[in-house]
Amino acid sequence: MVIPARPSPTTSTGLVRAVAWTLGLLLAFAVVPAAVHPTAARADNPIVQHIYTADPAPLVHNGRVYLYTGHDEDGSTYFTMKDWRVWSSADMVNWTDHGSPLSLTTFSWASSDAWAGQAVERGGRFYWYVPVKNRATGRMAIGVAVADSPTGPFRDALGRPLVENGEIDPTVFIDDDGQAYLYWGNPNLTYVRLNADMISYSGSPTRIPLTTAGFGTRTGDPNRPTLYEEGPWVYKRNGLYYMVFAAKCCSEFIAYSTAPGPTGPWTYRGTVMPTQGSSFTNHPGIVDFKGNSYFFYHNGALPGGGGYTRSVAVERFSYNADGTIPTINMTSTGAPQVGTLNPYVRQEAETIAWGSGIETEPSGDGGTNIGWIENGDYTKVKGVAFGSGASSFTARVASATGGGTIEVRLDGPNGTVVGRCAVPNTGGWQTWTTVNCPIGGATGTHDLALRFTGGSGYLLNMNWWQFTPAQP
């Protein structure tokens, strides 16, 4: 049988087909957590494996963490970035790929450099502030896109830059009194007071004094006397204002300062994350979610990773009693799972704790599907609560070839097989059908791996899956 050609995925197979996952991650991290809860499922860092991601910006909304990231192109030798991506999770372990609702093409006036941004919610709308190169001036400018959903699609709110001074890395903070502030900058640090519409501002941009008392002392560079480099992240906790930032390029570490007000005066407090990992940049994002605090960052831990091919990771942490941030180290184990995953409701196939060999794409069946699946590829989700047991497994699939088999396995891609679902040739990669197979032995709480087997070439696409509980 001749296998019909399938368009190549947007990312190269060099990233997703790499086999030395475990060894690569162990070598990439120099430390392990000081305290591990052995019974809790934990995240796999980096939290996305099928593309390179950078510059994390988390947002908590309606019981989920939405994570806005940049996207490093495979094989990059510079910050070659053309779009941004969105992910979300309800448990900090299993992350759903929402694709790319914002790209350079969203801004008709932008020419390149889809770099580090941040999204915030106000009045039921979502505003995503990003730095891009203004085609007319050749300088970096800050644009703002708006959407009615945290996953987009986003549209250019102004048709021109919101503000431009040639600098990058916007962060937005809305104070308790409703006043919003936009901060950005490298090599300087600037802010403006945003108006309530979030797409205009009052007054003029104001430069924050970069004093050594406020931002630490850098040595060896008379042009940069303080540690502040880029990537500010501003928030408020217990009446204290925090500014976390990338410090002292290169390689960068993450440091922070605090202030009694949103515009200062700032006092340098020290290191959050030391220089480590295999990326010479880093970028912070901090949120509280379901009673815990989380620190997002990036490194170069995936195969082929480095300073221009980065990957986002996350750690849980606790503030010290005096409100200071402890030193946080990179790990491969990540944050503990919050709760469990319910297999008896529809779960998107692109909700993944760890994946090998898969890609994602917009689906003609709605949402996003996983695809470019070959023999031996798999996805894994963590902490699946089967309870007293499942009787069957259902999946939404498509194939333009002879299809293949979905092996339903407990505890990993080589774990116990509790079911096998055959996938036929449906007549096209976006011609969808639903398959079902019996399940036996899936009880209690386990990690779940869906392993794909079959002949050569691409086998199938999958859009979603769901289990049916056994009748008592």
Structural description of this entry:
By secondary structure, this protein is mostly beta strands. 3% of the residues lie in helices and 46% in strands. It has 3 helices and 34 strands. The strands form 8 sheets. Strands 1, 2, 3, 4, 5 and 24 form a 6-stranded antiparallel sheet that branches. Strands 6, 7, 8, 9, 10 and 11 form a 6-stranded antiparallel sheet that branches. A 5-stranded antiparallel sheet has the order 25-28-33-30-31, with no helix packed on it.
How many helices? The count is 3
Helix and strand content put the structural class at mainly beta
Assign an overall shape.
globular
For the record, give the distance between the C-alpha atoms at the N and C termini, rounded to a whole number.
46 Å
* Strand coverage percent: over 45%
Rg (CA only): 23 Å
Weakly predicted, low-confidence segments:
1-5, 10-14, 16-39
* Count of strand segments: 34
Q: What is the percent of helical residues?
A: under 10%
The largest β sheet comes out as:
6 strands, antiparallel
Mean pLDDT: 93
